[in-house]
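[Solved] Which block belongs to which protein?

Original post:
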Amino acid sequence: MTSFPASHGFGPRKRGYQMDLTNVQPVENKPAWISMKSPLEKEIANEYEALKVTERKEDTQDYNEPELHNSNDPTVDLYADTYATQAATESDSELEDALFSQLDEFDDTAYREQRLEMLKKEFARVEAAKEKGHMQFLTVENEREVMDFTLSSKKVVIHFYHPDFIRCKIIDSHLEKIAKVHWETKFIRIEAANAPFLVVKLGLKVLPAVLCYVNSQLVDKIIGFADLGNKDDFETSLLEFRLLKSSAIDRLKEESSSNKSIYHDELQNNQSDDSDFFE
């Protein structure tokens, strides 16, 4: 057997022969045999990932929000929505009195009492949701916040945007409207440049990108405007209906303001067929 000088490090047992050159290469350029893991290594890696998920869930316990279930009662849901959208302009006591007085019209005492109890619980859920940042379109600055919200909130809609892309601004204007009336869902946005890990992990190459999570699971991706008619002046209700199909919101709600984007007028004569590519 040929012997190699120890100082040269060329022997088959020497690290320099097999590892040094490949270690400096990007992972995707390494030979397949270097990327292969033994069953034990795979088991250790899986346990490590599970531990990280557990630790993250423990870290976000303080962020956990109350269950915001749909009451499945149209009357109660309507009053709760009214309470959520008007409480900012009317005193809570005046609004509650107005809503409760409408229930007094029912002759069935048992029915009225049942609905009053449901209303009180629904109002409490609305207040809890608002305290947790619902009914706002929040801008977050880092990926950790995005992951925390995704783990701690039952329903989350995330917009990955670029500040200079006009279509991202259009999506922002629609999501801001939707967020104000859908108190059951958290709406957030993050600049794509501030989320490099998530952009790569989620394979985002075109902006705007809207991702919907329910119970920490990705349920829908809306990339560009291809699924929104591929035009800039689509109505808010179109995006709202898409979110409903994904279960990212509970139900459609009436809007008092115009359904058109705030950019509708200036974009009527500036239609574009392409979304913006993010690199």
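(Second protein starts here: sequence line, then its structure tokens.)
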Amino acid sequence: MVSTLAFFTSHCGVNKPPEIAQAEKNIPELIDYNLHVKPILSDRCFACHGPDQNKQKAGLRLDTPEGALAALSSGKTAIVPNNLRKSEVYHRIISQDSEYKMPPVESNLSLNPEEIAILTRWIEQGAIYKPHWAFIPPQKSKLPPVKNTRWPRNEIDHFVLARLEKEQISPAPEADKETLIRRLSLDLTGLPPTLAEVNAFIKDQSPQAYEKVVDRLLASPHYGERLATEWLDLARYADTHGYQDDGMRNVWPWRDWVIAAFNRNLSYKKFVSWQLAGDMLPNPTQEQILATAFNRNHPQTQEGGVVPEEYRIEYVADRTNTTGKAFLGLTLECARCHDHKYDPISQKEYYQLFAFYNNVNETGQIPYVGEASPTLILTDEEAEKKLRFIQKEIKATKQQLAAYPYQAPFQQWLKSLSEANTPLPKHPEGLIGYFSLDKHTRLPEAKLTNLADPHHQARLAGDSADRPRPTPAKFGEGLELVGEGFISLGKELGKFERNEAFSISFWTKILNSKAQGPFFSRSGGIYNGFRGYDLLLQPNHTLSASLNHVWPDNSLEIHSKAKMPLGQWVHLGFSYDGSSQAEGIRLYLNGQPLAVKIKNNHLRRSILHYGPDKNNWGDMKGALNFGERYFGSLNYTILDEIKIFDRALTVPEVVQLADASRTLGDVLKAYAKNPVRSLTCCAITFTPRTKTTRLT
């Protein structure tokens, strides 16, 4: 071994093998770690001398300067900058000794002369390590020297000519005008020039003919379209959802925004910040929120049977990964599952970035009908002007109402009523549906009599074995919900819009802790975004109520803090005031207002089902059903005394429904401490929702 090394070395340096000296003529003059060295080391060396501590051999690590420049246990050093003679790596890679050379023979890896020459020159030039190229700010390169100094007309020409001269290729001759305008037009607009444009360019003999064509093409709307195509690809834009049925999506306004941004030369800072977090800016404009659709371009699934949370997480991961590619120059996918030995970020750092995109109020399974929320309602300037006027009028009217001196006379009138021993009426005003569920109200063909309006009957739905069963109840007989059966009140009864007040009252007894599902629902389920309204018994036996255009973001949703009692008869009341605000929904248990938490408070569009030209999912499309919501049933539960009102009931009226034996005076005395509030609302705790991107 000593004699072998002596052949190449001298007292002050090294004599390189002839094949290496020859190969040096074909490699770059200046060696860059990321471009030239790291690909070689990662492919041939890092398996045994890389970041994986469990596989490091001889205590040597070559992926960091600290490891490569440190003294080894043998006393040698793998790499000594600017010194080949003292660099053990150099001697190993040029050795012909099978027991000494690197990579070892048994690895079935080898280095060719050019690769050895690159590593050699890198050591000679100081063995400078660099971080991942994505973390290095771009720097202006020096112009490479060229022999034909008369040919270049600009800086780019220097780089082109330098490579051509290296390959011993002469530049192509100057293009004629026909070819030149074709290149310009395709490069700047993606479209070939018209014959008229070609002829005009040929005839223009002015020194500025070329510049005039460039200016015209830059001013063309097609310029923005040409540049946008590449950004749309990077942003994974599509007009369909991408999974399974691949349904249509309406995200083209964002596409048009990108085109317009290029055409008006929007600054890159705004172009990036608006797309990543336009909705997080102070008082964001409609345009800034629209730009955030960049983060909603990922595929979305409509498939029935998927686990919504699984796919929601996929959407968050897609946003995270796309941010890496589009803005960081990094592929992040590997770090989602583990620390990757060749990636510059850790799994922990991946989920720190992931958390920024995990705040969108969305669901993993999107509807077939209706745009997947969150969405943005786009308005033109004329509509915006009208809306501002209306909002101004509403504000002024509210101020007038607040200043009106109604409290004193109202309380005086209320006091006179509370001192009277007046019996309460049998039913509050506005009763449009009353189903006692007693035997005498059950009709042939599984129909139920509506005691408030015989023209709107209900029916028992489901297979004969699953239909609700008669059973002793709070008052006479009721119906027990079993299997997939339910009570359908039809399409017309309970047909309320978001600006219409209504109330629903019933008695119920939960028989088993396994009970969960819809007490009532007027919705086609997930397939139409739960469009409509419902009252659900949650798995933990709390209540949730919602009014939805497309759930979850374009909706109102509240959850009770208290749980429903098990094995006893209770009266439930639901009331909504038509305000399109979550505070307008009230829940009552045995006549007492329930404290609730607001989960969603962003209902902006209709809750009525689509017309016949649209697809509504569910066998009972648009019907108000008790015990059923598409793909969901309530079991182990008895219902009795179902009542529907076309107005919002006050607290005393709900008390009346829960206990008909009380007089008007009794009811009012119970709420004398705060009579006005008690008559109109209940205890609500509002939990602000994380600010979210609101565009499909």
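Accepted answer:
You had them paired correctly. Confirming on the second one: The chain has 22 helices and 21 strands.
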